[in-house]
Amino acid sequence: MSWQRLVTLMRREARATLRDPFTLVILIAVPLAALLMFGFTLSTKVQDLAVGVRDESQTPASRRLLADLRANGDFRLHLFRSREAIDRALTSGRISAALIIPPTFDRALREGTPGAAAAEVQLLYDGAETVVAGNMEASLRGMIVSSVAELTAADGEEAGSASPSVGVAVMPRVLFNPTLDGIPYMVAGTFGFVLTFLTTLITAVSIVNERLQGTFEQLQVTPATSLEIFLGKVLPLGGVFAVDVVLMVVAAGLVMHVWPHGSALFFVAVSSFYVLTSLALGLIISATSATAAEAVQKTVLTSIPLVQLSGFAFPLRNMPLAVQWLAQLFPATHYIRVSRAIYLRGAGPIDLLPELVMLAVFGALLVAVALRSIEVRS
Amino acid sequence: MTFRRDRSVRRAKVRPPETGHFFSNIAAIAYKETAALRHDQAFLAVVLVQPIVMMLMFGFALSNEPANVPWAVLDHSRTEASRRFLDAVQSTGYFLAPQPVTSYDDGRALLKRGRVVAFVVVPADFRRAAERGQARVQLLLDGTDPISAARVGGYISAVGASFTTRRAPPPDRAPASPPLALRQRFVFNPTLRDRDFFLAALGGMLLTNLCLSATCLSIVGERENGTFEYMLASPTTPIEIVLGKLMPYVAISYGVLVLTLVATGLVFGIWPSGSLLALAVVTLPFVLASLSIGAFVSTLAATSAQAVFISVFFILPSFVLSGSMISYQLMPPGVREVGALMPLRWYQIAQREIIERGAGLGDVLVPVLALCAMFGVMLLLIRWRMQPRLG
């Protein structure tokens, strides 16, 4: 291994990468676009959702309930004249939930005798949008119950009679992200997405292109060893991605006000190591592809499960056990866990020992295979 | 000799350049493209394998509903009542066996390392407080994953609310009837199964991927090989070439859609509940719009690697922003509108209507019109980009 040769190879690679404006644009634009896109997509909040209303009661009490719902601001109420119209609006997805107040609403509310029929309100949710329905159920039900409680209290009948508490009061406290904001979770995950997908794609394409042009074979017949070729290829690209990581950390901080809770230095260090792992994977893919298009297709095909099953978009523990085991074989799974732990929980190296060991093992394994794939071809 | 030459010259002059042979030219290009595709084994494998893999992934693996939730317990009370409460939490089925810890700090450390999602602390006076009807427990949640945290918190609170701490209800008071009976129902998907949500939009995701990457690769590939120039030299206009190249993919798209629907029906028992005719109708403008975006990308790209890059970075945002995987209703206003520029947004709306909610042809009018408009705009853009290359 000669340092001089390595430096020459690295300089060559850096020039080749920076010469192509298209690659440069991809390297800068894609991470930032991914950050913005994914950052805002996950939300536990219910905002500006259309709710259909059929008020068959048309009394001050029912209007009061609707006014309360409107005042909350999370919902847009649409009044309907018939049940059929509501059904059609639900089918077409124009409304996500429907509230039906029966004609007996006001009377049942005023009588309110124990044991008698309670005021009945019907709520229909569009179960086709599972997450929307789940989130709405939580907020809409609570809002209606409390609004009706106020109504009965205003009527002055058994206003003070708090029902005897029988249950256990659970006092929840949310740590690390008290407002249950979706942005930090997705931002931390996006690092995993970009550093898995983009890195693999860029290396795979760059090497296949070199092979098509014959410049890779030329490299192999020089005295350079496969380790030198590998490092000469991977270190400049790794450097570019390390810059990308810093860029993303700063952009997420400035634009979305999400900064790592843990050590930023530790985060960049782990990410840079992970980049090398992904680049090695890209090299392996390129070694088995004949054309650039084939390499890209292979990368996309391996990346889709990689991204979906690594816990980036959906928590891993919700999946069947066999899939969870499979996911342990993806380096991305461990990196995303580390990235979230550092970003949200401020975890340090000792907290993350098992994940870091796994990442190191995968790194060593992939680099070894990548080195072999360079040799086999020569 | 001279006579013949005269005639051919006159015919070339008389023939209007575009109208006369428009459809036969398209058919010829379509025939050529089909013949080429039949020999592309890798492409055919992708077309057949990808739907199955994606279907299994979306059907079996991905879910928003918490499962196997790891949790820690610090039980200061150690009484029959506290154990009964913890068992009640466990028996909801969402949780793994609780991890007992001996100190508050141990529990916090487990949370920080991400080993548990929830940490329940039962105070020492739990049993006595329970007898007075004032029992309370502390719950610490890891808010890293907000959706899971909110739901896990909800499950435990619900267990608490329905937990009876006293053996018998107090005899002196009649149970106060609640002032309100809320009858709730989740229509179309009563158990809120995530599988139904994902699988309904699966066809759109597959077709987006297929249409975009296949067309742009095919056109750029021809340009790289120089065969695109041959076609331009023939008496076909660029728009005819593009349309002709798209036709076989329309047929393949319908094939993929049928394959997806049948496989989803057989494996998961989820068949479209609405009109199949409506689905067939809305698929056409969607496929054409997606294909024409692929063709447009090919006019922007210099090499096939670039073409795939551009299309991949269009495909991924479509998956995310269209609402196929994450409901677009939950996205903030600005982001929602960006997604509306993608064909997949309108197609997934139509798919959910037809497959999940049993809609008919009349209900999907808006998506159909939006998709047709997109196809029209893309055709104009392609014409505009192709024109200068002819000269």
Written account of the structure:
The complex is a heterodimer of chains A (378) and B (391). Chain A is of the alpha/beta class. Helices cover 66% and strands 8% of the residues of chain A. Chain A is built from 14 helices and five strands. Chain A has helices spanning 3-19, 21-39, 60-72, 83-92, 105-111, 130-154, 182-213, 215-221, 226-256, 264-287, 292-308, 321-327, 331-345, 353-377, and strands spanning 49-55, 75-79, 97-101, 119-126, 169-175. A four-stranded mixed sheet of chain A has the order 2-1-3-4, sandwiched between helices. In chain A, strand 1 (49-55), helix 3 and strand 2 (75-79) form a beta-alpha-beta unit. The longest helix of chain A has 32 residues, at 182-213. The model of chain A is unreliable at 156-165 (pLDDT under 50). In chain B, helix 9 (202-225) packs parallel to helix 12 (276-300) and helix 9 runs antiparallel to helix 15. Chain B contains 16 helices and five strands. Chain B has helices at 2-14, 22-38, 41-61, 80-90, 104-112, 126-131, 146-162, 194-200, 202-225, 227-233, 238-268, 276-300, 304-321, 333-339, 343-356, 365-390, and strands at residues 71-75, 99-100, 118-122, 136-142, 180-187. Helices cover 65% and strands 7% of the residues of chain B. Chain B folds into two domains: 71-187, 3-Layer(aba) Sandwich (abc type-2 transporter like fold); 194-389, no CATH class. Chain B has 391 residues and is an alpha/beta fold. In chain B, strand 1 (71-75), helix 4 (80-90) and strand 2 (99-100) form a beta-alpha-beta unit. Mean pLDDT of chain B is 82; it is low at 1-16 and 171-177. Classes of the chains: A alpha/beta (378), B alpha/beta (391). The interface between A and B is large, with 112 and 114 residues.
Task: Give me some keywords for this one.
heterodimer; A: about 375 residues; alpha/beta; four-stranded mixed beta sheet; 14 helices; 5 strands; elongated; B: about 400 residues; abc type-2 transporter like fold; 2 domains; 16 helices; disordered N terminus
